[in-house]
Fold:
Amino acid sequence: MRVKPMDTTTGRREFLKFLAGSPLLATLGLPLSLRGQYLENAEIGEKLITQVDEALNVFDFERLAKERLPPAHWGYLASGVEDNATLRANRDAFKNYHLRPRRLVDVSSIDMGRTLFGVRWDSPIFLCPVASQKAYHPEGEVAVARAAKSRGHLQVLSTGTTSPLEDVNAARGMPVWFQLYTQGWEITRSFIRRAEDAGCPVLVLTVDQLRPQQNSETQFRYIREDTRSCVQCHDPDDRLKNKRMFDNVNLEARESDRDQLTWDVIGKLRELTRMKIVLKGIVTREDAQLCLKYGVDGIIVSNHGGRAQESGWATLDSLPEVVEAVDGRIPVMVDSGFRRGTDIFKALALGATAVGIGRPYLWGLAAFGQEGVERVLELLRLELELAMMSSGARTLDEISPRSLGKQ
Structure:
């Protein structure tokens, strides 16, 4: 008996149809380090959202932002450094903890309010400083400020803002906190004077990024995919042209001095300003103790979202030792890798005073402008509220280490 040859045409066609609908295909152009991150959030056959209220979580905005932004702009936003190990560690750390639900607690009224330096905020979620926000939306930092105002959130403005500080304050309806990158003492002094004149109550000195240009491999790979001319966004002869804090500043005095800073900088800043001083980028108990010694007013535990150095150490894992060293004497805030309300809950349970987000609100900004930022904040607050309810915590003070279990 002759065996009929197998018809492979139909099988091949079906396989290609399967592959076309698979999230694996969408990752073929991505570096290996980012494929797992994409697959974690992708759903087979899921379409991009078209309206802001269709978003079910912040990752819906991430996918749309990637679609809408030029490759170079997306690459800057998505990149960590080197192998993106620290970027991934920030996300993986949340898997090491689980919530411990409590039952039969009256959680009909949830209060997420938090007081920082005498100001009460509706939520412990704050907006981290991120440079060049007009790269993601024409209204940039002003749109973010309007969203922060409408939802009652603290906003921290970057030295690299593409909107004038004064315009951001006007849109926010109150002075924002100002994040400082030192640029040599003459220019640094002018930044501080301008922030103080604008009424900014807190100066946030970033101490974890020693050089402006890191080995951001993912960013550089995306730049290679961008067919546009850079002069569409940047003046090659004036890279600071769109950075509004540098308006009317003597650029000849600009210095790259971040790698020269020591703890003496705190005293120098005290001589220049009455603003509260917060250090952003502290991750060890030793440095937390030095913050107390030198009279720092607050700490932001941060690794720059995995963009500063390839430590491989998540901020959620470094948070407890900083909290222990400080022992309640100054606020300890945290950022880097927060994407869910349960992520925020876990940081609060480990002792954080407040929790910052960066990339998620920029995804919302790139996708829908102010409305996108507002929806991101709304989703995170809803998720945090649900986590508090399931854990029997009616206020932030009722969230404690007992609210968590270790995997």
Summary: Residues 90-406 form a domain with the TIM Barrel fold (CATH 3.20.20.70). The first strand starts at residue 97 and ends at 99. The mean pLDDT is 89. The CA atoms of residues 86 and 310 lie 6 Å apart.
